[in-house]
Structure formats: C-alpha cells, structure tokens
Specification:
Distance between the termini: 12 Å
Strand order of the largest sheet: 3-4-5-6-7-8
Structural class: alpha/beta
Number of helices: 16
Strand content: 15-25%
Radius of gyration: 21 Å
Largest sheet: 6 strands, mixed
Number of domains: 2
C-alpha cells in the first residue's frame, strides 16, 4: 500500500503480543518485526512480548538482574540468571534444570536429572527478601516430581507467608508427566515405566508428608512433576500465559486497539491449551478486538479456528525457517495492506 493511500485511513493501533518462535526469534524480536510492518504502513504499535511460563518468561517479565551458581540438571554447577524486583522474584526453571543444560535429549540422563538447582534458586530468592516468587516452568530435563527442588528448599516452614506462583505451560497431571514428556527428555520405554512408578510413589509421599494430593491437580505434571512438588509446598499452579498477561497488563493494552497480532512457531491444538496464542486470543475476544495469528506452520486441524498466516505456506520452508523475522514482517504488511484497504 502506498503511504499516501494509508494517510487517508484514520490512525490504527495494533498490539503485538507474540510468543517466541523457538530457535528463530525471541518474543521481543517477533514483536519488533510486527512493529516494523505496522509502522511501514503508518500505524502505531504497542509491543507486549508474551510467554506461557516456559522459556522466555523471565525475559518478558523484565529480564534477569541476578545470578546464582546452582546444581545443574545432571549435578554439575551452572550459573543461573533470575530477577528480583522489590519483593517479587522471577525464576525460569530451564535456566537451572533445563534440557539444554543437560545436552539435549541425547545428552540427558532421564532417571538422574534433578530439579535441585531450581529449588536452590527459590531458596536464594527468599533469602534475598522475596515475598512473592514466580517460577516459570518449561524446557525441563527432569521427571523427578520436584523432589530435588523440595530437598534443596529446606523446611516448608521457611515458606510461610511466601507466595509461590507456578507459571505452567501445560495442564498435564502429575503421574502422566512420565508418558507425556519422558520421551522428549530422552527416556526409553523402560525408563518411562520406571519414571511413572516413581511419580506414583512420590504422589503418595506428598499426601502423607504434606497432605496434598498432587495426582489429581491439573498442571501438576508440568516440568516433569515439579509443579506438583511445589504445590505440595503450598504453591499455586496457574496457566503461565494468564499470569504473564496480568503482569504485563495485557487487558489494558488491548482495550481500544484495532487489531491484536500474536504468533508462535507452530499453531496446533496445544496452542489453545494454556499457551500464548490461546491466551491472547481469549483476551482479544473479551475486548472485542480482531485477532491475527502468524505462525511458522499451521496444522490443518486448527485452520479456520482463528485468522492465521502460515509462513511455510507463504514463503516456503527454507526461507520461513532461516529468515523468519523478515517473513513475519512481510506477512503482516501483506495482511494489513489488504485489511486497511478493504
């Protein structure tokens, strides 16, 4: 669209609220690409990079300003960054107990991987004065049911009066974590069966020692059961995207906007179950604002559920995966040019 034509249209305000495109663009970078598209057509953009409790949550909630040496997923020391802002701490478990730290699926030892480092970060935050601790789950190497973390945290009495908020990116239950996520972490079928049995026994231990039946809690299987372990310590388990939306005041930003643009690497059924796209879509719908989703790929099963652009379909797989941010910008320009000229 020519700028002179665009000038005839009343000013348009777009909210850019994407998730990361794993491996090709952070949420901030994708939001910047959307802003570039909108500004090239004369519109204005409010950027609200989003996350669902998984990797990237710390960055969208202000970024790290602290670091601690903690126990890594396979026992080696790692330096894990986290955030302390006043009395609120933000911790991303992947930075202490993540699969990448364990060498990925091939390098991981699924039966040995521990959440101890995450527990050490929580303890460090409380010792530094945090009264509210947000723990983002996702990208874990572990299926220890949170036992490593709880042991590192010490006595439950230490956390009386401390608000522990667990931002979950899945709604899987505790024992199911072995079958659902174990293979992604390198577990063989035999190891999955062993992990399943461990989680069953651990769920009973949590009932006996803490009076909490984590097996029946939605989201308790997040991060290989870490969510359930923290729930036994009194933590609240919430959909990470809702927590992030509240922290960044997404409702206030969306109100009165002309369009919300969100996106992620792959749009599928899981996108609407506690993930960024589904969460942002709900907020946009509640505000009566149209939604556009830009995704690397769009599964046929969800095609038509929301207005969506598949970068692979538009630009081919090679360019969509190697020049993702430019593809996002071009796709949004094309859509908005059509939308604004209609």
């Amino acid at each position: 669209m020519e700028s002179s034509t665009r000038a005839e249209v009343s000013p348009v305000r777009v909210v850019a609220a994407p998730d990361k495109f794993r491996g090709t663009g952070s949420a901030q970078q994708v939001a910047d690409a959307i802003e570039g598209a909108v500004s090239s057509l004369g519109g204005g953009t409010d950027k609200v990079p989003m996350a669902d409790g998984g990797e990237g949550t710390l960055d969208v909630l202000g970024g790290p300003n602290r670091s601690s040496i903690v126990t890594g997923p396979l026992g080696e020391p790692v330096e894990a960054q986290w955030r302390l802002d006043g009395s609120t701490a933000v911790i991303e478990m992947a930075r202490a107990s993540g699969l990448e730290l364990a060498g990925g699926q091939v390098g991981n030892s699924p039966l040995d991987a521990t959440t101890a480092g995450t527990g050490e970060l929580i303890l460090a935050a409380v010792e530094k004065g945090a009264r509210r601790v947000v723990i983002g789950l996702g990208g874990s190497a572990t299926t220890d049911g949170g036992l490593g973390a709880l042991r590192a945290m010490g006595l439950p009495a230490r956390y009386r009066g401390i608000e522990l908020l667990v931002a979950c990116d899945v709604r899987t239950r505790f024992v199911d974590a072995a079958e659902v996520f174990g293979p992604q972490k390198g577990a063989s079928p035999a190891q999955v069966a062993m992990l399943h049995g461990r989680l069953e026994r651990l769920a009973q231990v949590y009932v006996e020692e803490h009076g909490v039946d984590v097996a029946g809690l939605d989201r308790s299987g997040a991060a290989g059961g870490l969510a359930g372990g923290l729930a036994a310590f009194g933590a609240s388990l919430v959909d990470g995207v809702d927590l992030v939306a509240e922290e960044v005041a997404l409702d206030e930003v969306v109100a009165g906007a002309d369009l919300v643009v969100t996106g992620e690497g792959r749009l599928d059924e899981a996108s609407f179950e506690g993930k960024v796209v589904g969460g942002v879509a709900a907020h946009a719908a509640a505000a009566g604002v149209p939604l556009l989703v830009v995704a690397g790929q769009v599964d046929q099963g969800v095609a038509g559920r929301v207005e969506a652009i598949s970068l692979v379909e538009e630009f081919g797989e090679v360019r969509a995966t190697t020049d993702t941010l430019a593809c996002v910008e071009e796709a949004v320009v094309s859509n908005l040019s059509w939308r604004w000229s209609a």
